[in-house]
């Protein structure tokens, strides 16, 4: 497969509402966000949703691993994990060994795993399947993303949803408006003696006149903004096309530097920016060959980004209202291919984490022997998960966003309070 950049994927996905993809949506900077935080701060009791997209089709069977299942071992003689290698979750399942931090969240009932998630009549194309997930429309192509339609219905304020990816993903493009975009890039101020002298200019001095005091506050505000927003993303300095090809399995889009993206999101939440939905991503999961090492490295990156993010959020009232949703466009085939990898499949697990999540398993584990043309049969419709977070995290009417689909998963999200 020829490498396909994220930008080309977004163009081919068909979601172009409000000119979002053509013009890069509403680019915002730290000043706009800090002003919004001061003038209209996020209600500490308001739910916030962070959507993590794993581009490429993550292999769910080597993520939530049925290691004790004979059918799993037989289908993947070189690729399968042994029971003693995985992190035991119960029910004959274990987490990939690269996910030790998330195992700790599981043990503390802060991680939910929704099993067998997919959609009717699955498509093996990266582009079509990702478009289905991001538009929440399995049957017909629509020109808007599911969170973009939520944005339309909730007042069309682009600051209510923010992407920290280089290009706005289709899920945040509505029919009438689009989310704001603040790509990870960080802010930098002078260091050393010059930096110390500049910082000193932000210290108030008794008896200053109005304009000097105002300038002093501006310098202080700048340093506060750097503290909140400047640390993330110094590691994300590669160009879009380069970061698509940096690792094996990266042909289907996505971004690197997930920890930096999540650091930025955490800072914006803590600062009280009135954003209710964020989008971040990690690419590289198209593991047609040499899967085990590649995927375990990527899942370790996911784990080492999500775990400190979740721990940090526990330290503030606003952070405790954040729910993280992790998904990929499809799982992989049950049977390994001849290149020690797996090909495009269907159903896979979704992860949700946060203080309000009801930890544990949700949904039924797909059978490894009752297959549909060698693919797993989905046991949970992904729109059920979307409806749950729309209603229980964002306080929206799911039927208005999901074309009448309002079926939810019971006991997945605790009531705010």
UniProtKB/TrEMBL annotation:
Keyword field contains Signal: yes
Taxonomy, superkingdom: Bacteria
Keywords: Signal
Pfam families cross-referenced by the UniProt entry: DUF1501
Keyword hit for NAD: no
Signal peptide: 1-22
Location of region: Disordered: 230-256
InterPro entries: DUF1501, TAT_signal
Entry protein name: DUF1501 domain-containing protein
Species the sequence originates in: Amycolatopsis albispora
């Amino acid at each position: 497969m020829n490498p396909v950049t994220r930008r080309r994927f977004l163009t081919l996905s068909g979601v172009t509402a409000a000119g979002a993809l053509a013009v890069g949506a509403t680019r915002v900077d730290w000043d706009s966000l800090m002003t919004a935080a001061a003038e209209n701060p996020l209600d500490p009791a308001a739910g916030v949703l962070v959507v993590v997209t794993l581009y490429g089709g993550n292999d769910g069977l080597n993520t939530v691993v049925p290691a004790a299942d004979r059918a799993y071992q037989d289908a993947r003689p070189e690729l399968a994990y042994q029971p003693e290698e995985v992190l035991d979750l119960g029910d004959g399942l274990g987490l990939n060994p690269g996910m030790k931090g998330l195992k700790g969240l599981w043990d503390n009932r802060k991680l939910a795993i929704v099993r067998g998630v997919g959609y009717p009549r699955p498509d093996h194309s990266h582009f079509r399947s990702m478009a289905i997930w991001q538009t929440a429309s399995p049957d017909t192509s629509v020109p808007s993303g599911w969170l973009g339609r939520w944005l339309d219905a909730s007042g069309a304020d682009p600051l209510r949803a923010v992407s920290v990816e280089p290009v706005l993903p289709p899920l945040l493009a509505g029919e009438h408006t689009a989310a704001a975009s603040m790509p990870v890039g960080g802010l930098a101020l002078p260091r050393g003696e010059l930096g110390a002298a500049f910082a000193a200019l932000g210290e108030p001095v008794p008896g200053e006149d109005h304009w000097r005091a105002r300038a002093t506050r501006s310098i202080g505000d700048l340093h506060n903004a750097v503290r909140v927003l400047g640390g993330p993303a110094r590691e994300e300095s590669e160009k879009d096309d380069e970061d698509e090809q940096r690792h094996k399995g990266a042909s289907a889009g996505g971004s690197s530097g997930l920890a930096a993206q999540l650091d930025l999101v955490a800072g914006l939440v803590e600062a009280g920016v009135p954003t209710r939905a964020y989008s971040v991503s990690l690419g590289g999961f198209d593991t047609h060959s040499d899967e085990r090492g590649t995927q375990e490295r990527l899942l370790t990156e996911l784990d080492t980004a999500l775990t400190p993010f979740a721990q940090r959020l526990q330290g503030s009232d606003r952070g405790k209202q954040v729910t993280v949703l992790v998904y990929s466009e499809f799982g992989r085939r049950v049977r390994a291919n001849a290149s020690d990898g797996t090909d495009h499949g269907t159903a896979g697990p979704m992860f949700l984490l946060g203080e309000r999540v009801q930890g544990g398993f949700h949904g039924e584990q797909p059978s490894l022997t009752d297959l549909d043309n060698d693919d797993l049969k989905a046991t949970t419709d992904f729109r059920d998960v979307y409806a749950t977070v729309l209603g229980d995290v964002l306080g929206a009417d799911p039927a208005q966003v999901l074309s009448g689909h309002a079926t939810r998963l019971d006991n997945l999200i605790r009531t705010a309070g």
